[in-house]
Amino acid sequence: MLAVAYIELLIFVRVLFGAMLLQNSLLSPIVYSHFLRQRYYQSTFTRQAVTVASRTLDRYASRPGNPPLVGQVWRQAKALIEKWAGSTLEPQPQPATVPRR
Predict the structure, then answer these.
(1) What pTM value is reported for the model?
(2) Where is 47: in which H helix or E strand?
């Protein structure tokens, strides 16, 4: 299952690049990212794969030879992803009803 979680992350990268190069629908990364979000909440293997991938990208972005812009872009992208992944839809409050007599 851990291998499947890593493959799902690689598929997302492929879908994202495919959308940027107009090889597949622009809606595909959005739909697949929602799928990955659900997998993240429901699968410990996916959480582990995302953690490893995030740490690896952190290491590459903060390498000494990289321009500072690379680290800044990665940190902003990571913050945006974490904000989106952590957001939930709250149920709307129902108006109070008056019982009929």
Answers:
(1) 0.74
(2) helix 44-61
